[in-house]
């Protein structure tokens, strides 16, 4: 049976890049429904010997009104509720931001395993950000580069622990 993985985190951390790297077959974008379901993307993929069902959550980059935070929370909750594992992505180059804290708070309230990925870790400049991500309280961050395909074996090990 496939492991359902929800890729969550604030805009621009590299969620969709990771989704695209992991997803072999991309399923339909659910864009005909109102509200929070609209912005999720589903796909199947493989990581090592794991079959995955992936949920990519959109970042609402172009929503600027005050409902943004509420929508991001709701969408994250929906995706995580459907998933076996939440894959929480942060940007190691930027370190932990207030935006990341919002997602961390949502995830702490959910009774789901969280794998923390510190993305954009392909350069030495990201090391401080990886360390900072420890402070989010989800255990050891896995340094990855979704763009360059680095850290996938460690990501596999962390995700497989919850399969
Ligand atoms: P999302 O909003 O979280 O889905 O983020 P995207 O996947 O759209 O990526 C946001 C930006 O970060 C894009 O310009 C990506 O090319 C870039 N990006 C994603 N992964 C990496 C990475 O591993 N390293 C670097 N340097 N950039 C990345
Ligand atoms: Mg995206």
TrEMBL record:
* GO MF, one annotated term: GTP binding
GO BP terms, alphabetized: ribosome biogenesis
Keywords in alphabetical order: GTP-binding, Nucleotide-binding, Repeat, Ribosome biogenesis
- Positions annotated to bind GTP 1: 9-16, 56-60, 119-122
Domain (EngA-type G) ranges:
3-163
Domain of life, per lineage? Bacteria
Q: What does this protein do?
A: GTPase that plays an essential role in the late steps of ribosome biogenesis.
Q: Which family does it belong to?
A: Belongs to the TRAFAC class TrmE-Era-EngA-EngB-Septin-like GTPase superfamily. EngA (Der) GTPase family.
Subunit structure as annotated in this protein's UniProt entry: Associates with the 50S ribosomal subunit.
**Protein name listed in UniProt:** GTPase Der
UniProt source species: Phenylobacterium kunshanense
- Taxonomic path: Bacteria, Pseudomonadati, Pseudomonadota, Alphaproteobacteria, Caulobacterales
The gene that this protein is the product of is der
Parent sequence residues shown? 1 to 163 of 514
């Amino acid at each position: 049976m496939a492991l359902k993985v929800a890729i969550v985190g604030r805009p621009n951390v590299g969620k969709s890049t990771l989704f695209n790297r992991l997803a072999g077959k991309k399923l339909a974008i659910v864009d005909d429904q109102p509200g929070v379901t609209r912005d999720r993307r589903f796909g199947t993929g493989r990581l090592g010997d794991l079959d995955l069902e992936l949920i990519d959550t959109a970042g609402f980059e172009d929503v600027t009104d005050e409902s943004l935070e509420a929508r991001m929370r709701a969408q994250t909750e929906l995706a995580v509720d459907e998933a076996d594992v939440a894959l929480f992505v942060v940007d190691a180059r930027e370190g932990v931001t207030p935006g990341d804290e919002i997602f961390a708070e949502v995830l702490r309230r959910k009774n789901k395993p969280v794998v923390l990925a510190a993305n954009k870790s392909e350069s030495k400049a990201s090391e401080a950000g990886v360390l900072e991500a420890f402070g989010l309280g989800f255990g050891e961050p896995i340094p990855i580069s979704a763009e360059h395909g680095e850290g996938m074996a460690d990501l596999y090990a962390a995700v497989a622990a919850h399969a």
